[in-house]
Structure formats: structure tokens, C-alpha cells
Hints:
Layout: H1 2-10, H2 22-28, E1 33-36, E2 39-49, E3 76-81, E4 85-92, E5 99-110, H3 112-119, H4 124-127, H5 131-137, E6 154-157, E7 165-168, E8 182-185
This protein binds a DNA duplex through strand 3, strand 4 and helix 5.
Amino acid sequence: MVLIKISLMNSSAHSIDFHVPSEQVARALIGAIVTVDGVGGRIVETEAYDREDPASHSYSGPTPRNAVMFGPPAHAYVYRSYGIHWCLNFVCREAGHGAGVLIRAIEPLTGIDAMRQRRGLEPLKLLCSGPGRMAQALDITHAKNGMSLFEAPFHIEPPEEAYDIMCGPRIGITKAMDVPWRFGLAGSKFFSKPFPKT
DNA sequence: CTTAGGATCGCCT
DNA sequence: GGCGATCCTAAGC
Length: 198
């Protein structure tokens, strides 16, 4: 009986559905609160990547680096960027597909002291405004690659209101520039880069 | 304000 | 050998 109740309540009010295309998940995550060991904030910028997407790490099939992308959804795919930084993705769709959402920026809300300890003293605007900065502030490294987003140290709260969402071309890629799969919380001051005007 | 270069790892050609 | 889903610093306007 209890199980029936839970599955009825489950749909979207209490958790985000990762078993859908990455573009939908990227939109659904805008305004959600993500924390890692209690440190985190409101997601204000995401990008979607898919298997049939020349800009995606999964485009050419599984490798040791992108293996987690081909695993079950709602897990963390962490990769090293430019040999230096770490970047955090959420795996989408079904196991074996190879889709994900890159978390590009959050608005810091909790654990700001810990963030500053990891990143140094700098304006609040810059602490988590970019995938590499956010990963450093939240202590995301390869050690968290493959972890479930529904278990500690991760915690995700779905948005509690309907935010206006902007979209535009993804950042830092040279392929599939025409696909507008970058999403942002309209009016946020915490973007890694501004969105092009209409 | 904009631009240029360096750091440095995994995977592709 | 080359090129990124990046960021920081320094120099130029």
C-alpha cells in the first residue's frame, strides 16, 4: 500500500525525472537547488548533450572517460576539462543511451564559507559562475564520478516555482553551434557568460 | 572594456 | 601531434 502511495506522489513534485531527453532535464533543472555535503545553491545555467550530438562526449561511443554517461540516469558524470578543471554532468535518459546535462553555474546559497576556502576570496558572483569554478567550489572531482544523485553527498530539490527560462547556443564548443541547448534562469546575475539578446 | 597565452589530461588522427 | 563542454593573469585600448 505504501509503495502505491509513493509512486503516485513521485512524478514531478518531489523529484526530477532524469529518464527523459537531456534537453527536457536541462530545462527542469533550472531553479533546482543542488548541494554536495550541504554546500551548493540554485542552478541557473545548464547545457544539454545527447548521443546524436557531435558536440557530446558520448558521440563517438563509450570510452573509459565517458563510461558513466552510458550507465543509468540520475548519476554524476565528472570529467576533466582541458587537463585542469573538473566539470559536473547529470546522466539522462535510460542506461546505455549516453545523454547528459552539464551544470554550468549555480547561485551560491549554502556553505559559502567552504566555497571561499576552496576557491579563495572573490566576489560571490564568481564563486560558481562556470562549470570549472562550480566544481571546485562544491569539491567535485573524479572521486564523485558515477555517484547517484539521490544519495549522499548529493542532494537535489526541484524548483518550487515556475521560472522564466532563457536559451541560446552552448558555450565553448565548435560543433552543432546551431542547436540552442544552453538554458538559463532569466535575470540571474550568476551566469558564466551572458545570453545573446534575442 | 577586449584579447592572448599558459596550464596540462584523455582521446582522436 | 592536435584539440578540447575552462579559467586565470597580463597587457592593450
